[in-house]
Design goal:
Strands 2-1-3-10-11 form a five-stranded mixed sheet, covered by helices on one side. By secondary structure, it is an alpha+beta fold. The chain is built from 21 helices and 14 strands. Strand 12 and strand 13 form a beta hairpin.
């Protein structure tokens, strides 16, 4: 058997020559081919796995978004847009060359030179991120960003990145560069609810994209990195810095000249006034839930025509901002304002010092004690019980159970007319009257006029120990301003689609607009509240040549200060205070709130062309107005008697007496952090429900209110 064997490499004949060994080049080719085959197999399997659940690219032109709600003021001016806003696609050829070039310069300088992904850019981004130890630079091309926006979720993972790359290559194979760029500019999100450059241009600058300046184009291009972080509305300085970076990149790319850059830097970019009006957002928040109650969850774009007057809103913002800045040293931190016309239409609403800082709407959702701004309900009830402005009342010590109200002055003036007691906001008279005519009757009067908050029947209720909102107070006082009719405050006139189909139309006369005050009681009430402005605690708010009336209010320890005033068919309620319910420093209803009210009304009245306060319904047969001689004698008595008016140039002394915080009756929910409460409209109630029952009597002192 020896020698009987076989050898690999020999032929069957057994006599061939040995096969020569492969050269180095042959080995490289061989193993390269093997690796290429396995790489191809791997790539096929890899892409098969990742492509298995790729989105349907037939949805390329579909827009999946939440319906938008556009809010217009009473004159058709834009207030806000909530939800997603789209506009007709911008024609790339109609845009100035520097507009698309700005996006290419900052987002993808090699856009015209890559197949959908940029290996150079990816390598550069990876190196920069490794040096920084975190993600500081992205390597996605403009085409990849479009693929992500069109088809993918924003999740950051390997599968999404691979799918993004695959879709980017598909887009490059299917569309030209110009078509991809046009798709990108018309579908990318610019913040503030705007999708596409046309919607963004209209939203931010009130103009079409074809009219954008170099600076505006740079600002929009800079937004894409982080729309909220670089918003020109809330982050103007950061947005300007980012726009400058874009301008520098445009110069480096040769898109614009250094001279054009210099001109763009010096030329101010003005953001739309309606976007910058952040206080109107409190009003929009108030309407948001109401819309869903009226028409259900939106399934299509809607246009809401509101009652707001943007010009008056701007005047209110200026008045509030000026006094908050002026009186910050006195602890005035927050303010709320509601202005209604005689039909209950909200013309202006401010829910706080800054919507950006706090979205809690103090005009609607805050409940603060009204102080002496509540007393008109007491006095109207007294008038309806047989009193007149000339009825003599006695300012003297009084005790109701365990409670003895005191006056701001610490003294008692003795006998005076009811009109003088109203003007000077005398606590003892209001408390005594409410006890005599019945606090339950006072509560019914307040309900009848439009107060929707809980009304307790404890003795201090007469002096304003009732928590109300500015909207409640404006709604109730509107009956004094409009001839005695109860109204329900509202802000929506009509809801329609962009094509004009009406979804909701408010009726010309809604239920609840009924005669709530008859005469002569309305006549008497208005006369007494005019006296507050001419010789009482509200004289600092008086406007020369205008028929105005109103009432101040300040609560214990200066925690809340109010002024609610009106003219013919127009009422404005103003509150100032702190969210944490701590005291201000000597701020009364006749100081900061009255100053805000006057500042706003002085600007608003010329626009309103408001008439004098109306007399209201017809007087009873045989009724005669008070004798002018008697009124004159009363005014002379005020000048030379025991109660001379203070110097008009001095800040009015408001009514009331301070009590320690520990003696204030506990009110459920009063000290809850306001910012945690949901923003929603207050429910409307029956025009004249029964008052809430009084809580069980407690052996504690009640506060005194001004």
């Amino acid at each position: 058997m020896a020698g009987s064997g076989f050898s690999f490499g020999r032929g069957g004949g057994g006599g061939g020559q040995p096969k020569p060994a492969r050269t180095t080049m042959q080995r490289l080719i061989y193993w390269g081919s093997v690796l290429a085959v396995w790489a191809l197999i791997f790539l096929v399997v890899f892409f098969a796995v990742f492509a298995r659940d790729l989105p349907d690219t037939s949805t390329l032109y579909n827009v999946d978004r939440q319906p938008s709600i556009t809010y217009l003021d009473r004159n058709g001016a834009l207030i806000a847009v909530r939800g997603s806003q789209m506009a007709p696609p911008a024609d790339l050829d109609a845009l100035p060359d520097y507009v698309p070039a700005a996006f290419i310069a900052i987002e993808d300088r090699r856009f015209y030179h890559h197949p959908g992904f940029d290996p150079v850019g990816m390598t550069r981004a990876i190196a920069a991120n490794m040096r920084a130890g975190r993600v500081v630079q992205g390597g996605s091309t403009l085409t990849q960003q479009l693929a992500k926006n069109l088809f993918l979720s924003p999740d950051q993972n390997m599968k999404r990145k691979v799918q993004e790359l695959m879709l980017a290559v598909w887009l490059e194979m299917k569309f030209s560069k110009e078509e991809i760029l046009a798709l990108y500019l018309n579908r990318v999100y610019f913040g503030a609810g705007a999708y596409g450059i046309e919607a963004a241009s209209q939203r931010y600058f009130d103009k079409g994209a074809k009219d954008l300046t170099v600076g505006e184009a740079a600002l929009l291009a800079g937004l894409l990195k982080a729309p909220s972080r670089y918003s020109p509305v809330s982050e103007s300085e950061r947005a300007a810095t980012r726009a400058t970076v874009v301008l520098n990149e445009m110069v480096d790319a040769g898109v614009i000249t250094p001279e054009q850059r210099a001109q763009a830097v010096t030329e101010p970019v003005r953001v739309s006034r309606t976007l910058a009006s952040q206080h109107a957002q409190y009003f929009v928040d108030w309407l948001d839930k109401q819309i869903r109650e009226l028409v259900g969850e939106p399934t299509e774009d809607m246009i809401v025509e509101t009652t707001l007057d943007l010009t008056l809103q701007t005047s209110a913002e200026r008045a509030v901002r000026r006094i908050l800045e002026r009186d910050r040293s006195r602890g005035v931190q927050q303010a709320a304002l509601v202005a209604l016309d005689g039909e209950g239409r909200v013309r202006a609403m401010i829910g706080g010092a800054s919507y950006a800082d706090s979205q809690f709407n103090r005009a609607v959702d805050a409940r603060r004690q009204a102080g002496s701004a509540w007393k008109p309900f007491v006095y109207l009830t007294a008038l309806e019980s047989g009193y007149t402005p000339q009825t003599l009342v006695n300012d003297a010590p009084i005790r109701i159970g365990n409670w003895s109200p005191r006056n701001y002055s610490g003294s008692f003036a003795g006998e005076m007319t009811l009109a003088n007691a109203v003007a000077q906001s005398t606590n003892t008279v209001a408390a005594g009257l409410a006890d005599q005519i019945g606090r339950d009757n006072v509560a019914r009067t307040a309900r009848r006029l439009g107060i929707t908050s809980r009304i307790g029947l404890e003795p201090a209720m007469a002096l304003g120990a009732v928590e109300v909102s500015p909207l409640d107070m404006a709604q109730a006082y509107d009956a004094f301003a409009n001839g005695g009719k109860r109204v329900r405050a509202y802000g929506i006139s009509r809801i329609r689609t962009p094509q004009g189909r009406v979804i909701y139309q408010r009726a010309s006369r809604e239920p609840g607009s009924v005669q709530a005050i008859s005469n002569p009681f309305l006549y008497y009430q208005n006369q007494m509240l005019r006296g507050v402005m001419t010789s009482g605690t509200g004289r600092s708010a008086a406007i020369a040549g205008r028929d105005t009336a109103g009432k101040t209010g300040t609560t214990s320890d200066y925690k809340d200060a109010w002024f609610v005033g009106y003219t013919g068919g127009f009422v404005t309620a103003v509150w100032v205070g702190k969210d944490d319910n701590t005291p201000m420093r000597g701020v009364t209803g006749g100081s900061s709130p009255a100053a805000i009210w006057r500042g706003f009304m002085e600007a608003a009245l010329p626009r309103l062309n408001a008439p004098p306060i109306p007399d209201g319904p017809a007087m009873p047969e045989g009724w005669q107005p008070p004798s002018p001689v008697e009124n004159l004698i009363g005014q002379i008595g005020d000048l030379f008697g025991d109660n001379p008016p203070a110097d008009p140039s001095a800040e009015p002394l408001d009514e009331g007496l301070m009590e320690p915080p520990a003696q204030r009756p506990a009110t459920p929910g009063r000290n809850e952090p306001p910012v945690l409460r949901p923003t929603q409209p207050q429910p409307q109630r029956d025009p004249a429900p029964q008052p809430d029952p009084a809580p069980p009597p407690e052996k504690k002192a009640d506060p005194l209110f001004f």
